[in-house]
């Protein structure tokens, strides 16, 4: 090894990799295999940098002690799985403004499940999608959470179904001025409250002048059952132009908000994915039904001075 280093055949980082790898080989397969490993690794070092050499070193037993390689690989895999289970954790730190900072390490199986769930949702939804990769991953995780909540199969919480609860005043909501309060404390803007109310369960409650509960009505789901099925049959997915999100990732949106006396009907509803639902509530786009009863979207004047209506032809093609 010294001769190889002195002669420039290997550099210092490669020497460290070779030493670490040979130590493992010696402990696993003995002195003879370790000596063979030195020769093989020095030869590889002429072609690969330290990082690739370390990766190749994980398969060195295939070359110097093939009869032990499978057993060693299985033992290494078991050790890796044990470390993954031991080290798994998720930390949720609440910020002062209601946001959460997530950090942690997922075990291998959970990591695979998370990637399988969010990867299909992280691609840009069109040329106008200006979100960063990190923002798309955030929105994908939000979509997965909403889908899980809609199943109604999550464990109960305090006797209630798992749900996001927002409290607001009906009068303020109709005037588009009132903020909402989450049951965990933070406030939401009027725009966020109206967006959430598009596809929600409404539980009316009458309060006295000092805030005491006088009466609680029956919970009413806005867009569900036969109406949602009809909406899925018509729109087949997110109706925003160019979006490919399927129905299960979509929410019902009231074209004329129910708080503005908009009907909860097929003629006043459209399917939108979470991203485009937020985009419609916070942006300058408008949505309406065309003469054939299908949704069309009117872009803002700064994007299209003629404001020609656009449709999503993606789902129609199939």
From TrEMBL:
Keywords attached to this entry: Endonuclease, Hydrolase, Nuclease
Domain HNH nuclease: 226-278
GO molecular function: endonuclease activity; nucleic acid binding; zinc ion binding
Taxonomy, superkingdom: Bacteria
Family: Belongs to the Rv1128c/1148c/1588c/1702c/1945/3466 family.
Protein name (database record): HNH endonuclease
Origin organism lineage: Bacteria, Bacillati, Actinomycetota, Actinomycetes, Micromonosporales
């Amino acid at each position: 090894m010294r001769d190889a280093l002195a002669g420039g055949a290997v550099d210092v980082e490669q020497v460290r990799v070779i030493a670490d790898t040979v130590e493992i080989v010696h402990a696993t397969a003995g002195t003879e295999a370790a000596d063979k490993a030195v020769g093989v690794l020095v030869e590889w070092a002429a072609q690969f940098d330290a990082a690739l050499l370390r990766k190749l070193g994980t398969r060195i037993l295939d070359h110097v002690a093939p009869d032990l390689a499978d057993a060693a690989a299985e033992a290494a895999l078991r050790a890796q799985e044990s470390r993954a289970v031991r080290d798994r954790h998720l930390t949720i730190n609440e910020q002062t403004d209601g946001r959460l900072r997530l950090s942690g390490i997922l075990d291998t199986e959970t990591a695979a499940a998370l990637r399988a769930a969010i990867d299909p949702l992280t691609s840009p939804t069109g040329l106008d999608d200006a979100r960063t990769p990190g923002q798309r991953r955030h929105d994908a995780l939000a979509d997965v959470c909403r889908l899980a909540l809609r199943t109604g199969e999550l464990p109960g919480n305090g006797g209630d179904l798992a749900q996001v609860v927002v409290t607001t005043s009906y009068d303020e909501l109709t005037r588009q001025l009132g903020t909402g309060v989450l049951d965990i404390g933070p406030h939401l803007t009027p725009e966020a409250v109206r967006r959430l109310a598009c596809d929600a369960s409404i539980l009316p409650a009458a309060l006295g002048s000092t805030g005491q509960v006088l009466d609680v009505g029956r919970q009413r789901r806005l867009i569900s059952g036969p109406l949602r099925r009809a909406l899925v049959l018509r729109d087949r997915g997110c109706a925003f132009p160019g979006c490919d999100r399927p129905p299960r990732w979509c929410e019902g949106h009231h074209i004329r908000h129910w708080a503005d006396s908009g009907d909860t009907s097929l003629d006043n509803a459209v399917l939108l994915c979470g991203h485009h639902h937020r985009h419609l509530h916070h942006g300058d786009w408008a949505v309406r039904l065309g003469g054939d009863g299908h949704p069309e979207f009117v872009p803002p004047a700064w994007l299209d001075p003629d404001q020609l209506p656009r449709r999503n032809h993606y789902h129609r093609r199939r």
